[in-house]
Design brief:
232 residues, alpha+beta, outer membrane lipoprotein receptor (LolB), chain A, 16% helix
Length: 232
């Protein structure tokens, strides 16, 4: 693949596969991989954890559009996601695209959201290359000034054996709501939402966390390794 085709394929893969339950759309400058300050607020007082994350995107007919497993880590508002496209199932991600990315050493993707640096890093461990995506100024300001979180209990359910309170969550800034979600918060896991569901237009996104560990992730996981090269 040419450099331009690789970048296009990467952008498409990110757009299809990293809605991360926030917006389910092609990346934007404000939220290049679907991660933003409002999404991080869903974790409440849990500032550090790691887990397996399984994300499922359903279309307007409630049929599966994307299913994507990944490794997830959070530390003091920073978020890291490790994805292997070969483990991902999607109607809109052709095998030829994955094959091309694999040949370029780019089938594994690491996305690192760094609101403190106003940037998102996208790393490709197979080729030791990375891209940068600017985080909108408003995202950093939102993190600094804070967002209001309104959480209303609407029921109780068990998720993977965890007794959870099902909540409707609305996160607002000064202009109004910026994110609405339903969360299943587990009492035995420090009230962490083990399942998050959001909607965007005609899509429904369900994220489920498992194998949760509360040990602080190594801070180095949220940095670009010294031997990686910036993609031009």
């Amino acid at each position: 693949m040419t450099s331009m085709k690789i970048r296009l394929a990467c952008a498409l893969a990110l757009g299809f596969l990293l809605p991360c339950a926030v917006n389910a759309q092609i990346p934007t400058a404000g939220s290049p991989t679907g991660l933003n300050a409002a999404f991080v607020k869903l974790f409440g007082n849990v500032s550090a954890f790691s887990a397996r994350l399984d994300t499922q995107v359903l279309d307007s007919s409630d049929k599966e559009w994307v299913r994507m497993p990944m490794q997830f880590a959070a530390l003091d508002n920073k978020v890291r996601m490790d994805i292997n496209l070969e483990q991902t199932v999607s109607r809109d991600l052709p095998a030829s695209m994955i094959s091309g990315l694999k040949n370029a050493g780019m089938e594994r993707i690491v996305s690192i959201f760094r609101p403190d640096k106003q940037i998102t890093y996208v790393l490709y461990p197979g080729s030791k290359r990375y891209m940068t995506m600017a985080v909108a100024k408003g995202e950093t300001e939102a993190m600094q000034k804070g967002l209001k979180v309104e959480k209303t209990a609407v029921g109780k359910e068990k998720i993977d054996g965890h007794a959870c309170v099902k909540n409707k969550v609305v996160i607002k800034n000064d202009q109004g709501p910026v994110l609405e979600a339903v969360t299943w918060n587990a009492a035995d896991l420090q009230d962490l939402p083990v399942q998050i569901e959001t909607k965007e237009k005609d899509k429904r996104v369900i994220m489920r966390f498992s194998q949760v560990q509360f040990a602080k992730p190594d801070a180095k996981q949220f940095e670009v390794p010294a031997d990686y090269t910036l993609m031009q």
